[in-house]
Please model this.
Amino acid sequence: MADEATRTRQVRVATYNIHRGRGLDGRTRLERIAGVLATIDADIVALQEVVGASPIKPGQAAELGAALGMGWVMAPTRHLRTALFGNVVLSRFPIKHHVQYDLTWKTCEHRGVQRADISITDKDTLHFYNVHLGTSLLERRFQAQKLASLVHDRRVSGPKIVLGDFNEWARGIAKDVLAERLHSIDLTKHLSRRRTYPGFFPILHLDHIYYEGEVEVVRVSLPRDRMALMASDHLPLVADLRIGFDLTGG
Model:
């Protein structure tokens, strides 16, 4: 993949809908989520359905960041009682810029995508998009079109990773729209078991990873140990990627 004009860095990324830390046993135990993430040992993680800060608590993002020794940024889409609620990016690398885009469609639940510009090195920036799409077909079509346009924006140059809970388990409108502009990690080439929801007995494949730029997929995994099967209603999806960065700075 690399040539004289690029340098490569290997990065482990993951996407994980943590379901507010509530496991399939009905118990909210954030330490299980932290345990799963520690086992994954990813460099950058996209989390969905995270309870943020409230007047009385620092929130799950702060707790996970402290437990794992990772920096974090949150993109709330709504409130859950008195707390913020939405998407979070955890990163071992410095997050030098963060922006949130609204993907809400009509009167449906508020949805969004967050972009974290992450300094893999002083000279190499990875654009990391964390998304949680809606549950209705027309809603996802609108959101996929807007998301594809945002990611494909040439004013934001360099490699881009797009991952999250797309709420689409088969080849559908959102997947077709995104495939026109982005590359998708084909899980059939890497995994014999690809379903991520619900966690203990997954029957649906809702979590996906897309990319733009010079990206080589080294390995994909879907942790299925006892803790991962119980900690949330989703399983985490993990990918080791070899990413090419332009030496010319273009």
Summary: The chain has a mean pLDDT of 90. The chain has one domain: 6-245. DSSP finds five helices and twelve strands in the chain. Residues 6-245 form a domain with the Deoxyribonuclease I; Chain A fold (CATH 3.60.10.10).
